TrEMBL record:
This is Imelysin-like domain-containing protein. One of its GO terms (cellular component) is cell envelope. CDD domains: Imelysin-like_IPPA. It comes from Tropicimonas isoalkanivorans. Keywords: Signal.
Length: 341
Protein backbone atom coordinates (compact mmCIF):
# COMPACT_ATOMS: atom_id res chain seq x y z
CA UNK A 1 0.00 0.00 0.00
CA UNK A 2 1.32 3.44 -0.87
CA UNK A 3 2.01 5.56 2.20
CA UNK A 4 1.67 9.34 2.07
CA UNK A 5 4.34 11.41 3.72
CA UNK A 6 3.36 13.54 6.72
CA UNK A 7 4.15 16.67 4.69
CA UNK A 8 1.80 15.62 1.90
CA UNK A 9 -0.94 14.76 4.38
CA UNK A 10 -0.62 18.25 5.88
CA UNK A 11 -0.81 19.79 2.41
CA UNK A 12 -3.95 17.83 1.58
CA UNK A 13 -5.53 18.92 4.84
CA UNK A 14 -4.93 22.55 3.92
CA UNK A 15 -6.58 22.32 0.51
CA UNK A 16 -10.01 23.97 0.25
CA UNK A 17 -12.91 21.55 0.18
CA UNK A 18 -14.35 20.63 -3.18
CA UNK A 19 -17.46 22.64 -4.06
CA UNK A 20 -20.71 20.97 -3.20
CA UNK A 21 -22.57 19.69 -6.24
CA UNK A 22 -25.14 22.15 -7.50
CA UNK A 23 -28.64 21.49 -6.27
CA UNK A 24 -30.97 20.13 -8.91
CA UNK A 25 -32.95 22.96 -10.45
CA UNK A 26 -36.72 22.64 -10.25
CA UNK A 27 -37.56 23.88 -13.73
CA UNK A 28 -41.26 23.11 -13.25
CA UNK A 29 -41.32 25.50 -10.30
CA UNK A 30 -39.60 28.18 -12.40
CA UNK A 31 -42.15 27.66 -15.17
CA UNK A 32 -45.10 27.93 -12.79
CA UNK A 33 -43.67 31.06 -11.19
CA UNK A 34 -43.10 32.67 -14.58
CA UNK A 35 -46.64 31.89 -15.72
CA UNK A 36 -48.07 33.39 -12.52
CA UNK A 37 -46.19 36.60 -13.31
CA UNK A 38 -47.30 36.51 -16.92
CA UNK A 39 -50.98 36.05 -16.17
CA UNK A 40 -50.85 39.21 -14.04
CA UNK A 41 -48.97 41.18 -16.68
CA UNK A 42 -51.13 40.11 -19.61
CA UNK A 43 -54.22 40.67 -17.47
CA UNK A 44 -53.05 44.19 -16.60
CA UNK A 45 -52.59 45.00 -20.28
CA UNK A 46 -56.01 43.59 -21.08
CA UNK A 47 -57.58 45.75 -18.38
CA UNK A 48 -55.70 48.88 -19.47
CA UNK A 49 -56.80 48.46 -23.09
CA UNK A 50 -60.42 47.99 -22.06
CA UNK A 51 -60.19 51.28 -20.17
CA UNK A 52 -58.52 52.89 -23.18
CA UNK A 53 -61.37 51.79 -25.42
CA UNK A 54 -63.96 53.17 -23.01
CA UNK A 55 -62.15 56.51 -22.79
CA UNK A 56 -61.88 56.74 -26.59
CA UNK A 57 -65.63 56.23 -26.84
CA UNK A 58 -66.22 58.98 -24.28
CA UNK A 59 -63.84 61.40 -25.99
CA UNK A 60 -65.31 60.82 -29.43
CA UNK A 61 -68.81 61.27 -28.00
CA UNK A 62 -67.61 64.53 -26.40
CA UNK A 63 -68.27 63.19 -22.92
CA UNK A 64 -64.61 63.60 -21.96
CA UNK A 65 -61.69 65.85 -22.89
CA UNK A 66 -58.92 64.61 -25.22
CA UNK A 67 -56.50 64.90 -22.29
CA UNK A 68 -58.16 61.90 -20.68
CA UNK A 69 -57.36 59.85 -23.77
CA UNK A 70 -53.70 60.83 -23.49
CA UNK A 71 -53.67 59.56 -19.91
CA UNK A 72 -55.30 56.28 -20.95
CA UNK A 73 -52.76 55.84 -23.76
CA UNK A 74 -49.96 56.27 -21.21
CA UNK A 75 -51.49 53.66 -18.92
CA UNK A 76 -51.87 51.18 -21.78
CA UNK A 77 -48.32 51.80 -23.02
CA UNK A 78 -46.85 51.18 -19.57
CA UNK A 79 -48.95 48.03 -19.25
CA UNK A 80 -47.63 46.84 -22.61
CA UNK A 81 -43.96 47.46 -21.70
CA UNK A 82 -43.49 44.24 -19.64
CA UNK A 83 -45.01 42.18 -22.47
CA UNK A 84 -42.49 43.60 -24.93
CA UNK A 85 -39.98 41.18 -23.39
CA UNK A 86 -41.99 38.10 -24.44
CA UNK A 87 -41.69 38.27 -28.22
CA UNK A 88 -42.57 34.63 -28.80
CA UNK A 89 -45.69 32.50 -28.66
CA UNK A 90 -48.94 34.50 -28.79
CA UNK A 91 -47.13 37.84 -29.15
CA UNK A 92 -45.33 36.55 -32.22
CA UNK A 93 -48.40 34.76 -33.61
CA UNK A 94 -50.57 37.89 -33.30
CA UNK A 95 -47.87 40.22 -34.65
CA UNK A 96 -48.52 42.24 -31.51
CA UNK A 97 -45.04 43.69 -31.17
CA UNK A 98 -45.65 45.70 -34.34
CA UNK A 99 -49.38 46.29 -34.21
CA UNK A 100 -49.38 47.48 -30.59
CA UNK A 101 -46.12 49.41 -30.56
CA UNK A 102 -44.64 50.13 -33.99
CA UNK A 103 -41.29 51.47 -32.80
CA UNK A 104 -38.60 52.33 -33.77
CA UNK A 105 -40.24 54.07 -36.72
CA UNK A 106 -37.31 55.27 -38.81
CA UNK A 107 -39.30 56.27 -41.92
CA UNK A 108 -42.54 57.66 -40.46
CA UNK A 109 -44.57 54.59 -41.27
CA UNK A 110 -46.98 55.68 -38.52
CA UNK A 111 -47.73 58.91 -40.35
CA UNK A 112 -48.14 57.13 -43.68
CA UNK A 113 -50.37 54.51 -42.12
CA UNK A 114 -52.58 57.16 -40.58
CA UNK A 115 -52.85 58.89 -43.96
CA UNK A 116 -54.23 55.64 -45.38
CA UNK A 117 -56.53 55.03 -42.42
CA UNK A 118 -57.97 58.53 -42.40
CA UNK A 119 -58.61 58.34 -46.14
CA UNK A 120 -61.15 55.57 -45.46
CA UNK A 121 -64.84 56.30 -44.78
CA UNK A 122 -65.40 57.44 -41.21
CA UNK A 123 -67.49 54.42 -40.28
CA UNK A 124 -64.61 52.16 -41.38
CA UNK A 125 -62.06 54.21 -39.42
CA UNK A 126 -64.12 53.74 -36.29
CA UNK A 127 -64.07 49.93 -36.42
CA UNK A 128 -61.36 47.53 -35.29
CA UNK A 129 -61.60 45.57 -38.54
CA UNK A 130 -61.18 48.78 -40.51
CA UNK A 131 -57.98 49.56 -38.62
CA UNK A 132 -56.79 45.98 -39.16
CA UNK A 133 -57.03 46.55 -42.92
CA UNK A 134 -54.25 49.17 -42.96
CA UNK A 135 -50.57 49.09 -42.04
CA UNK A 136 -49.61 47.77 -38.60
CA UNK A 137 -47.93 51.13 -38.03
CA UNK A 138 -51.36 52.76 -37.77
CA UNK A 139 -52.95 50.12 -35.54
CA UNK A 140 -51.49 50.80 -32.11
CA UNK A 141 -50.34 53.15 -29.41
CA UNK A 142 -47.90 55.25 -31.48
CA UNK A 143 -50.75 56.01 -33.88
CA UNK A 144 -52.93 57.21 -31.01
CA UNK A 145 -50.04 59.35 -29.76
CA UNK A 146 -49.71 60.94 -33.20
CA UNK A 147 -53.43 61.71 -33.37
CA UNK A 148 -53.25 63.41 -29.98
CA UNK A 149 -50.18 65.52 -30.75
CA UNK A 150 -50.77 66.67 -34.33
CA UNK A 151 -53.27 68.63 -36.37
CA UNK A 152 -55.01 65.43 -37.43
CA UNK A 153 -58.59 64.85 -36.30
CA UNK A 154 -58.55 62.51 -33.31
CA UNK A 155 -61.90 60.91 -34.06
CA UNK A 156 -63.17 58.63 -35.46
CA UNK A 157 -59.79 56.95 -36.07
CA UNK A 158 -59.08 56.85 -32.33
CA UNK A 159 -62.22 54.76 -31.84
CA UNK A 160 -61.08 52.10 -34.28
CA UNK A 161 -57.48 52.04 -33.06
CA UNK A 162 -58.49 51.73 -29.40
CA UNK A 163 -60.93 48.94 -30.27
CA UNK A 164 -58.23 47.15 -32.27
CA UNK A 165 -55.71 47.43 -29.41
CA UNK A 166 -58.25 45.94 -27.01
CA UNK A 167 -58.99 43.11 -29.46
CA UNK A 168 -55.29 42.28 -29.68
CA UNK A 169 -55.00 42.32 -25.88
CA UNK A 170 -57.93 39.93 -25.58
CA UNK A 171 -56.37 37.66 -28.21
CA UNK A 172 -53.07 37.65 -26.33
CA UNK A 173 -54.76 36.63 -23.10
CA UNK A 174 -56.66 33.83 -24.82
CA UNK A 175 -53.57 32.77 -26.72
CA UNK A 176 -51.68 32.39 -23.48
CA UNK A 177 -54.24 31.12 -21.03
CA UNK A 178 -57.05 29.31 -22.83
CA UNK A 179 -57.30 25.57 -22.18
CA UNK A 180 -55.07 24.84 -25.18
CA UNK A 181 -53.03 28.05 -24.99
CA UNK A 182 -49.28 28.63 -24.86
CA UNK A 183 -49.16 28.27 -21.09
CA UNK A 184 -50.52 24.74 -21.40
CA UNK A 185 -47.95 24.02 -24.10
CA UNK A 186 -45.25 25.03 -21.63
CA UNK A 187 -46.76 22.92 -18.84
CA UNK A 188 -46.63 19.82 -21.04
CA UNK A 189 -43.00 20.11 -22.15
CA UNK A 190 -41.51 16.77 -23.15
CA UNK A 191 -40.39 14.61 -26.07
CA UNK A 192 -43.83 14.73 -27.71
CA UNK A 193 -44.16 18.52 -27.36
CA UNK A 194 -43.82 20.33 -30.71
CA UNK A 195 -41.96 23.30 -29.16
CA UNK A 196 -40.48 22.48 -25.74
CA UNK A 197 -38.73 19.15 -25.31
CA UNK A 198 -38.11 19.71 -21.58
CA UNK A 199 -38.95 22.04 -18.70
CA UNK A 200 -35.39 23.33 -18.95
CA UNK A 201 -36.19 24.69 -22.40
CA UNK A 202 -39.10 26.62 -20.90
CA UNK A 203 -36.76 28.09 -18.29
CA UNK A 204 -34.36 29.10 -21.05
CA UNK A 205 -37.18 30.79 -22.95
CA UNK A 206 -38.17 32.95 -19.99
CA UNK A 207 -34.55 33.62 -19.08
CA UNK A 208 -33.84 34.82 -22.61
CA UNK A 209 -36.97 36.98 -22.45
CA UNK A 210 -35.70 38.66 -19.27
CA UNK A 211 -32.37 39.43 -20.92
CA UNK A 212 -34.13 40.68 -24.05
CA UNK A 213 -36.25 43.05 -21.97
CA UNK A 214 -33.14 44.53 -20.37
CA UNK A 215 -31.52 44.81 -23.80
CA UNK A 216 -34.55 46.69 -25.11
CA UNK A 217 -34.22 49.21 -22.30
CA UNK A 218 -30.45 49.66 -22.52
CA UNK A 219 -29.94 49.61 -26.28
CA UNK A 220 -33.24 50.99 -27.57
CA UNK A 221 -35.27 52.90 -25.01
CA UNK A 222 -32.15 54.61 -23.63
CA UNK A 223 -29.52 53.98 -26.28
CA UNK A 224 -31.38 55.32 -29.33
CA UNK A 225 -32.02 58.82 -27.97
CA UNK A 226 -28.59 58.91 -26.27
CA UNK A 227 -26.74 58.55 -29.56
CA UNK A 228 -23.09 59.16 -28.76
CA UNK A 229 -20.85 61.80 -27.17
CA UNK A 230 -21.01 63.98 -30.25
CA UNK A 231 -24.74 63.97 -30.87
CA UNK A 232 -27.93 62.93 -29.14
CA UNK A 233 -31.16 62.10 -30.97
CA UNK A 234 -34.06 63.30 -28.78
CA UNK A 235 -36.75 62.40 -31.30
CA UNK A 236 -35.60 58.81 -31.43
CA UNK A 237 -36.98 58.41 -27.92
CA UNK A 238 -40.08 56.26 -27.66
CA UNK A 239 -43.36 58.15 -27.15
CA UNK A 240 -41.49 61.45 -26.82
CA UNK A 241 -44.47 63.48 -28.02
CA UNK A 242 -46.44 62.49 -24.91
CA UNK A 243 -43.37 62.54 -22.64
CA UNK A 244 -43.69 58.84 -21.80
CA UNK A 245 -40.17 57.66 -22.66
CA UNK A 246 -38.83 57.27 -19.12
CA UNK A 247 -41.99 55.78 -17.64
CA UNK A 248 -42.18 53.12 -20.37
CA UNK A 249 -38.54 52.15 -19.76
CA UNK A 250 -39.25 51.98 -16.04
CA UNK A 251 -42.30 49.79 -16.63
CA UNK A 252 -40.21 47.31 -18.60
CA UNK A 253 -37.55 47.23 -15.87
CA UNK A 254 -40.30 46.58 -13.34
CA UNK A 255 -41.73 43.81 -15.51
CA UNK A 256 -38.37 42.05 -15.76
CA UNK A 257 -37.89 42.42 -12.00
CA UNK A 258 -41.27 40.74 -11.44
CA UNK A 259 -40.17 37.83 -13.62
CA UNK A 260 -36.85 37.51 -11.80
CA UNK A 261 -38.57 37.59 -8.41
CA UNK A 262 -41.41 35.24 -9.29
CA UNK A 263 -39.52 32.70 -11.38
CA UNK A 264 -35.75 32.76 -10.94
CA UNK A 265 -35.13 34.10 -7.44
CA UNK A 266 -36.37 30.98 -5.56
CA UNK A 267 -33.72 28.89 -7.36
CA UNK A 268 -30.85 31.40 -7.18
CA UNK A 269 -28.40 32.25 -4.36
CA UNK A 270 -29.71 34.93 -2.02
CA UNK A 271 -26.69 37.17 -2.55
CA UNK A 272 -27.18 37.09 -6.32
CA UNK A 273 -30.85 37.94 -5.97
CA UNK A 274 -30.09 40.75 -3.52
CA UNK A 275 -27.49 42.19 -5.86
CA UNK A 276 -29.90 42.10 -8.79
CA UNK A 277 -32.60 43.98 -6.92
CA UNK A 278 -30.15 46.50 -5.45
CA UNK A 279 -28.94 47.40 -8.94
CA UNK A 280 -32.49 47.34 -10.35
CA UNK A 281 -33.70 49.71 -7.64
CA UNK A 282 -30.77 52.05 -8.29
CA UNK A 283 -31.48 52.09 -12.02
CA UNK A 284 -35.15 52.87 -11.53
CA UNK A 285 -34.46 55.57 -8.94
CA UNK A 286 -31.95 57.24 -11.24
CA UNK A 287 -34.42 57.04 -14.11
CA UNK A 288 -37.19 58.61 -12.03
CA UNK A 289 -34.86 61.44 -10.98
CA UNK A 290 -34.11 62.51 -14.56
CA UNK A 291 -35.57 65.93 -15.25
CA UNK A 292 -36.69 67.28 -17.75
CA UNK A 293 -38.32 64.49 -19.81
CA UNK A 294 -35.87 61.93 -21.14
CA UNK A 295 -36.00 63.13 -24.74
CA UNK A 296 -34.95 66.59 -23.58
CA UNK A 297 -32.48 65.36 -20.97
CA UNK A 298 -30.30 63.55 -23.52
CA UNK A 299 -29.71 66.85 -25.32
CA UNK A 300 -28.22 68.41 -22.17
CA UNK A 301 -24.69 67.56 -21.03
CA UNK A 302 -25.59 66.68 -17.44
CA UNK A 303 -28.84 65.05 -18.50
CA UNK A 304 -26.97 62.94 -21.04
CA UNK A 305 -24.63 61.72 -18.31
CA UNK A 306 -27.56 60.84 -16.05
CA UNK A 307 -29.25 58.80 -18.76
CA UNK A 308 -25.94 57.06 -19.48
CA UNK A 309 -25.67 56.19 -15.78
CA UNK A 310 -29.06 54.46 -15.94
CA UNK A 311 -27.97 52.61 -19.06
CA UNK A 312 -24.85 51.40 -17.24
CA UNK A 313 -26.96 50.02 -14.40
CA UNK A 314 -29.23 48.18 -16.83
CA UNK A 315 -26.21 46.66 -18.56
CA UNK A 316 -25.01 45.55 -15.13
CA UNK A 317 -28.33 43.76 -14.64
CA UNK A 318 -27.71 41.85 -17.87
CA UNK A 319 -24.29 40.84 -16.57
CA UNK A 320 -25.76 39.58 -13.30
CA UNK A 321 -28.25 37.46 -15.22
CA UNK A 322 -25.68 36.05 -17.62
CA UNK A 323 -22.74 35.49 -15.26
CA UNK A 324 -24.32 34.84 -11.87
CA UNK A 325 -27.91 33.69 -12.23
CA UNK A 326 -27.91 31.77 -15.50
CA UNK A 327 -25.24 29.21 -14.57
CA UNK A 328 -27.07 28.40 -11.34
CA UNK A 329 -30.28 27.83 -13.27
CA UNK A 330 -28.47 25.72 -15.83
CA UNK A 331 -29.28 28.09 -18.70
CA UNK A 332 -27.65 30.89 -20.60
CA UNK A 333 -28.88 33.77 -22.68
CA UNK A 334 -28.99 33.06 -26.36
CA UNK A 335 -31.03 33.64 -29.47
CA UNK A 336 -33.66 36.33 -29.60
CA UNK A 337 -36.69 36.32 -27.35
CA UNK A 338 -38.65 36.38 -30.58
CA UNK A 339 -37.34 32.93 -31.43
CA UNK A 340 -39.03 31.29 -28.48
CA UNK A 341 -35.86 29.21 -27.93
Amino acid sequence: MTRLSPALLCLVALLPPLPAPAAEVDHAQIRDGALEVLVRQVGAFRSATASLNNVAEDVCAERAAPETLALAVGDAWRAWAPLDSYQFGPVEQAGAALSINFWPDKKDFVGRGLDALQALPEDVQARADGVASVSAAAQGLPALERLLTSDRPVCPAALGIAAHVQAVADALYEGWFSSDGWAQLMRTAGPANPVYLSDEEVTRTFFTAADFGLERVAEYRLGRPLGDYDRAFPRRAEAWRLGLSASIADAQLEGVAELVEGAFAPAAPEETVDRYFTVSKAARERLAAIKPPLHEAVDDQMGHLRVEAVQTRVQELRTILADDMGPVLGVETGFSAADGD
